[in-house]
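I am writing to request your help with a piece of structural work I have in hand. The matter concerns a single protein, recorded as an amino acid sequence and a row of backbone structure tokens. Could you please explain, in whatever detail you think fit, how the structure tokens follow from the sequence? Thank you for your consideration; the sequence and its tokens are set out here:
>
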Amino acid sequence: MKLWSGRFEKNTDALVDELNASIEFDSRLYREDIEGSIAHAEMLGSAGILTEDDVKSITGALRAILGDIEEGRLTFSLENEDIHMSVEAELTRRIGEAGKRLHTARSRNDQVALDIRLYLKKEISEIKGLILALMSALVRKAEANTETIMPAYTHLQRAQPTTFAHYMMAYANMLRRDVLRLDDCLERMNESPLGSGALAGTTYPIDRGMVARALGFAGVTQNSLDGVSDRDFALELLSCLSILMMHLSRFSEEIILWCSWEFKFIELDDAYSTGSSIMPQKKNPDIAELVRGKTGRVYGDLITLLTVMKALPLAYNKDMQEDKEPLFDAIDTARKCLPVFTAMIDTMTIRADNMRSAASGGFINATDCADYLVRKGLAFRDAYTVTGRIVNYCIAGKKTLETLGLEEYRSFSPLFGEDVFEAIALETCLKGRKSEGGPSPDSVRAQIEYIRTFLRQTM
């Protein structure tokens, strides 16, 4: 018999039971459900709603149930629909009437809202730790490559010189924002909805603040309707995870390009590559490709919940049971991708010679040539035009800015002198870019220290 069956004269159809049940996926909330129930029971006892003996009996049995679940001695079936009713039914089976009193002054509506928040708070902490570990790997790579020159790109065309360290710090800063977004999400999530009841609170003299404090919340939700109806915190987390996965996907795309024969800037460790079933020469960046592919999956989880919530009137609706699977899937996906991505970065080999060779072509020091003329007194737009003509001349003659002779330079402008060759050397180009955030070794070392400080303060 279902706990809610008092008003009904016949059993629900078996197909309805199968569709209605959520125990197959919300069973992972068992710990949060039991922790919340223990805090609720202790508050009911403090308020004089439950006797001291009932509180001891309930909390003792709940702790025993928790132990049995974690030891694999207790499993759940579709009969009790969800984790909340499953735990309550088992509690009542063990201690009788006292178990039936636990649900006083609460509803499954505020109970599930509490469980999800408790669960997500823990998951945010875990995901943050994984992001910070990836940032630490990027710092290690950057520290070893502050003078590893490579071309930076716009439109996938060689644009200006940078270093591999500068590149790594770009992604480290993206991940820093991901951590800060999760912190912001956690701050808004950190309110207890328990005590909202089904939607209109309760007539019992409960102490919502006591439960909130016991469970580590900063406070309570301020409106009972909103307390059971709100899933903004879940949407916000899915949005944060979508942005995080977008960053990993962009990084994956770079890695896929860089380890191709056309670039050969890096080589992935054998442990983080795969081969072909037919082509023996292949070494495929499947990990990066999978991360890139799984990004779409997390986007889908966000869209799923947005679509579920978009037309729901207040308060709780059964549609909201569909919040858990996309949440769990996005969390699981991010947690699977982050550690293997970190290991892939940590173990990859940097091909500095190939990066340097690529940086020598493509006229990526053309801007520096124009800046040289500006320092000689020419307006930037005129310097830009002169340099563009020089580049065309080099292309036609299959030359580079480095191999052009001084007289050839002077045929375009009398402002050119012997010092032009020092000015356009890649090392000079890099060291001269000392503006805050730029790719000069000194600037990048400052960026590394900035991220290191963030890691120390956050870990």
